[in-house]
From TrEMBL:
Keywords: NAD, NADP, Nucleotide-binding, Translocase
UniProt key word Repeat: no
SMART domains membership: AlaDh_PNT_C, AlaDh_PNT_N
Native species: Pseudoxanthomonas kaohsiungensis
Protein name from the UniProt record: proton-translocating NAD(P)(+) transhydrogenase
Amino acid sequence: MSVQVLVLKESAAGEKRVAATPETVKKLAAAGAQVAVESGAGLGAGITDQAYLDAGAQLAAADSSGSADLVLCVQPPPAEAIGTLRQGATLVGVLHPQADQARAAALRSRGIRAFPLERLPRTTRAQAMDVLSSQAGMAGYKAVLIAAQLAPRFFPMLTTAAGTIRPSKVLIVGAGVAGLQAIATARRLGAQVEGFDVRPETREQIESLGGKFLDLGVSAAGEGGYARQLTDDERAEQQRRLADHLRGIDVVVCTAAVPGRPAPKIVTAAMVAGMKPGSVIVDLAAETGGNCELTRPGETVEEGGVVIDGPLNLASMGAVHASEMYARNVYNFVALLLKDGVLSFDWNDELVAKTAWPEPAPEPATAAG
């Protein structure tokens, strides 16, 4: 019997993305799966139920979650929804199981084999499955558009009959995927752009996008492409130099993150107080506490004439393309689990084993000879 795949309609407030598109439904069907989609799951991303039907999917019945072998989602379902899944089913999405005790308990009680895609190893082979990168790209793009809307000035230089308007000075804090996309977007809008990251290896990437690398004399090069935590002395020196520089900046977009930890506090209240009235800070790291001390997640506030915005779930604001990328990421991962139309888990595959939650126990060693 073919694998029964269910695509959930997202229940989180404001979430418009979907975990499968007609394109990936066709690919799943070609891999031997039978796909059902909850009615209305794709509407936020511009996909009608009929589009799924035309791609070979079925519309899921109200009680179909209890019969699905493989369930695909974007954000984690609530604990009560997990409780309706079939015992021993497989769940794939951005699940953060350890962030919510009720969610983790529900997964364990139903014997759900969970694959939280945020745990996927960041390797070259995994790039086509990397949902964090694909969604961060959309978030970085949207963050700059929000900044441009909030800023009381033009981004590009303009020569007008009333004189020349100088370009806005934009600083992007953090040069991961979101930061690099933010740099590219701000440059397209005509701003004078700088990028700051404590990892010195990002200089070439920032400059390749037309930005200027802001060197504050502090390096936090770490392992796996991530930054290490700074020492107290390093942080103090970084903040002193950054505070001086921010006095001449019009727009700051913060994107810095440390995996598994609250967002590092980079822009202090004192730095904000030293910025020009009319300046704007958009803190893309708001979901994990924010890079700015004054950020209020989900709110736009003003402090001393400086506007500070803490947007949440920016990727959902670009749900059409974000869903296309996310669905392809999900399919590329699920393809590792589908063998001849049935679910099969190769625990020798690093991507499968290290993404699984909890990680599978190592097989006992056998005696030689």
